[in-house]
Amino acid sequence: MAAKVDHAQFRLVIPSQTRYLNLVTGLAKRASLVAGLDDATAAKVSIAVDEAVTNVILHAYRGEGEHSVELELRFTEQALEIHIWHTGQGIRSDQLVLPDPKEYIKHPRKGGLGLLLMSRFMDEVQFKADAVSGRNECCLIKKIS
Amino acid sequence: MADLSIAVRHIGDVAVILPAGFINAHTVREFEEALEGQVQQGRYKILLNCKDLNYISSAGLGAIMGLIETVRENDGDILLSNLQENVFAIFDTLGFTQLYRVFHEEDQALAAVAPERKA
Lengths: 145, 119
What we know:
The complex is a heterodimer.
Chain A: E1 9-15, H1 21-35, H2 39-60, E2 68-75, E3 79-86, H3 101-106, H4 114-121, E4 124-130, E5 135-143
Antiparallel strand pairs in A: 1-2, 2-3, 3-5, 4-5
Helix pairs in contact in A: 1-2, 2-4
Chain B: E1 4-11, E2 14-23, H1 28-40, E3 45-49, E4 53-56, H2 58-73, E5 77-81, H3 85-93, E6 101-103, H4 106-113
Parallel strand pairs in B: 2-3, 2-4, 3-5, 5-6
Antiparallel strand pairs in B: 1-2
Helix pairs in contact in B: 1-2
């Protein structure tokens, strides 16, 4: 008997290489439209996904391209959820310090804006670690109003 | 199609940079080199005409931030024009529209940065 497939979610696994970012962000944008979000919101979701996947590739995996990044998109009536898993260096939500935009503008420097964009453009951003599997997760949630 | 292509025009002492496509962590080095190349040539008045820029992530914003002090120390500036809605949203969300002068059209920006030039 064929396994039951949940059509409200699907997964994509990419190599940990920035050349695939455009593919992932394009998918995130179109998934947002399918979920019922408008164009402007879909663009913001795609930026948030870019930042999350970039963080995994450049920071969690330190730019090493031989690893995998797994994404799962879940469509519910209330929200679009994007789960991003990896086995690199993880971070926890309680370790995060978001830059203050006003201070950032007074003292311009490179870096530090990705997490801020994620938190501004999504309704929820969660970082989790699974001690059993050794996998780390970033979960992005956009509510459908 | 390439993720990013960059054209550069010189109008007086202003370097007009036209990125087309997507600026993300994969393409940002190309964008950075285009900006740095102008500064190395002594061109400190830089206008980013973003009419064909579909998307910019924090990597691209970092490249701009990395040069703003240098150009302003040399009596120059980085200006932005022709921003698409989602690109404007990124700059505005982070408060960057307070840090950079943003114009609807390239001619308006040129008139502001080189007032002697007739727009």
